[in-house]
Amino acid sequence: MGRIMAGAGAALLLVAAGLFWWQGRATSEPVPQAMVVPPPPPAIEDLPKGNPAAVGKPLPAPAEASPQSREQKRFARYDRNRDGVITRIEMMGSRVKAFKALDKDKDNLLSFEEWAVATSDRFGKADANADGKLTPAEFATTAPKRSAAAKCKC
Predict the structure, then answer these.
(1) Measured at the alpha carbon of residue 135, what is the angle toward residues 134 and 137, in degrees to the nearest 5?
(2) Which residues does 135 contact at the CB level (< 8 Å), separation at least 6?
(3) Of all residues in the chain, what percent are helix, strand and coil, respectively (each to 5)?
(4) Listed range (5-9, 40-44, 91-95) with the worst mean pLDDT
């Protein structure tokens, strides 16, 4: 027991000596700072003045919208790798339908098989030449049917 007490006392003395030595090495002198001059303030620029000859003339036209058609934009959303064709994996990966339309057995559970069969059938119907890829013309046949006009119930 005496050895343990002696070892603990020696450890405490060594820790105390280390703390005194560490504090003694610290200096109280301020650390010299580099002479850094703040940058000069930016020059104040005058506001641009209008061209007096342009008064009364029409403003320039705003930027044009994308030249792509609606079908081209829809095709681009499915064509993930931008190679000009849609593979079965690209079509199935981003295809989302309403839950009730996919739930064929009406059990309020959507199994992967129900979803995969519906998407695969749709892809098969659109792939006219059965090459496993959809061209833009083939993809256009998968467009959802749009209603004639939305009726406002205001």
Answers:
(1) 115
(2) 84, 85
(3) 45, 5, 55
(4) 91-95
Summarize pLDDT for 21-33 with one digit per residue, the tens.
777 666 666 666 6
Local confidence band at 6 (pLDDT 50, 70, 90 cut-offs): very high
For residue 138, give the nearest of 122, 130, 126 by alpha carbon: 126
- φ/ψ of residue 33, rounded to 5: -95, 145
Tokens for 70, please give them: 């609606």
User: Under a CB-based contact definition with an 8 Å cutoff, are residues 86 and 134 in contact?
Assistant: yes
Residue 11: which residues within 8 A CB-CB, separation 6 or more?
none
Q: How far apart are CA 38 and CA 50, in angstroms?
A: 35
pLDDT at res. 10: 92
